[in-house]
Amino acid sequence: MSIYRSLNLILLGPPGSGKGTQAKVLSEKYHIPHVSTGDMLRDEVRRGTGLGRQAKAIMDRGELVPDEIVGSMILHRLDKEDCARGVILDGYPRNVAQAGVLDGILAELGRTLERVIVIDVDDEEIVRRLGGRRSCPKCGRVYHLVFNPPRDGKTCDDCGVALVQRDDDREDVIRERLRLYHQKTAPLIELYEKRGLIVTIDGSQPVEGVTGSIIDALGSPLSA
Ligand code: ADP
Ligand code: AMP
């Protein structure tokens, strides 16, 4: 038996701290979807929608897309049936205003936030990680050329498709994203700390070590 009836989690941490990597594993273990506003926006960009065209220039500069755009995306996503037993939020909320919007959405849907997991990694490690990040354009699986390489060094282990580098993983843009993280997103830690929701994890461990620490902190997975 699980200790949770539902499990709504936020993964909080700087870009490159491993939120997407951990969310994929946790989503399979806890049987709840991984919801990433970055992935949703990149999908809009790939499909060439109006929203995607608007977001692309902002994302390439490492800035934040307007709150109303991501707020409306997240409302529609959380309202879907597969999120009823919980969700792993990755990349949302990103500032205090978005945290307020999320509170409103969860209240409206009759849900609660169970935990906010902070993945702690220092800035220089982030620059090393993002410089080597590659991802599969088909399934979104994330690799690192040194820390977590694909078997043949260049194509996705699952899809066989050539891996790509994100347009915003350039050093100048990485520095801007880190600056915005410290200025706009890190204050959320104090906000959620006051509600007793924060669990801090040492994100400098290898991938499996980080996963183990999160699972230890969360307790047993939901039954399937
Ligand atoms: P985020 O979603 O927080 O931006 P990612 O999950 O995309 O971060 O990870 C960023 C990069 O760091 C990727 O290349 C990933 O393979 C690598 N990575 C993730 N977790 C670790 C870890 N614990 N140790 C070393 N590299 C990692
Ligand atoms: P990520 O995949 O989380 O690293 O996000 C990539 C980019 O998408 C960010 O640098 C922002 O430009 C944009 N983005 C993702 N999530 C949000 C959000 N919650 N609010 C504003 N912009 C976002």
List its traits:
224 residues, alpha/beta, Rossmann fold, two-stranded antiparallel sheet, 46% helix, binds adenosine-5'-diphosphate, binds adenosine monophosphate
CATH class: Alpha Beta
Number of helices, counting only DSSP H or I runs of 4 residues or more: 9
Adjacency order of strands in the biggest sheet = 2-3-1-4-7
Output the structural class.
Answer: alpha/beta
Number of strands: 7
Name every ligand kind in the structure: adenosine-5'-diphosphate, adenosine monophosphate
Sequence stretches where pLDDT stays below 50 over 5 or more residues? none
What is the helix/strand order?
EHEHHHEHEHEEHHEH
Name the CATH superfamily assignment.
P-loop containing nucleotide triphosphate hydrolases
| Helical percentage | 40-55%
Average pLDDT figure: 94
Radius of gyration over C-alpha positions, nearest whole angstrom: 17 Å
- Predict the CATH topology: Rossmann fold
Distance between the termini: 10 Å
State the shape.
globular
Describe the structure.
By secondary structure, the protein is of the alpha/beta class. The protein has one domain (7-129, 170-218): P-loop containing nucleotide triphosphate hydrolases (Rossmann fold), CATH 3.40.50.300. Helices cover 46% and strands 14% of the residues. It is built from 9 helices and 7 strands. The strands form 2 sheets. Strands 2-3-1-4-7 form a 5-stranded parallel beta sheet, with helices on both faces. Strands 5-6 form a two-stranded antiparallel sheet. Strand 5 and strand 6 (142-144) form a beta hairpin. The chain is globular, with a radius of gyration of 17 Å. It starts with 6 loop residues before the first strand and ends in a 6-residue tail after the last helix. The mean pLDDT is 94. Residues 13, 15-21, 129, 132-133, 142-144, 147-148, 205-207, 210 line the site of adenosine-5'-diphosphate.
